[in-house]
């Protein structure tokens, strides 16, 4: 484990730069900082879901595991060339996806974000996760990003969509379906 933070402010970022995990300094709006910052936002959104008191135990466990993975992924992105997320992480998400999706009826229509507080928070996390994935792809266009990191975020957004469906059905009995407006 690296150094623990005993002093929160350092003043070193007052010039618009920030330190990466390897000790190098980059602009706070660099592609790399945007990528791991969006992963951090995704993790915070998942924390909002976990703050709900009525989550099924399996969902709570799954999302807690995801939070740990996202912290690792942020660390991976913060240290150029470092790798933590592996194929096994992606496979675990796929297993969770398959297990949760098997209990749901086939989706024949688009659904709207909502369906109760936990489901709505899950939709926010899903959309933030999609942004994190886009930021990581932008970074991958300029620097090396492990393919498993990109795959992980792609599967995670799918998993969050399925969990939102599970939570909406638990809260309301069904999802909110989109209907075409008047032409």
Describe, in plain words, how this protein is organized in 3D.
The protein has helices spanning 31-50, 57-78, 87-102, 117-140, 147-172; strands at residues 17-19, 25-27. By secondary structure, it is mainly α. A hairpin with a 5-residue loop joins strand 1 (17-19) and strand 2 (25-27). It has a two-stranded antiparallel ribbon with strand order 1-2. The chain has a single domain (18-172), classed as Cobalamin adenosyltransferase-like (Hypothetical Protein Ta1238, Chain: A), CATH 1.20.1200. Helix 1 packs antiparallel against helix 2, helix 1 runs antiparallel to helix 4 and helix 4 (117-140) runs antiparallel to helix 5.
CATH class category name: Mainly Alpha
Radius of gyration: 18 Å
Oligomer: single chain
Percent strand: under 5%
Q: Would you tell me the overall average pLDDT?
A: 90
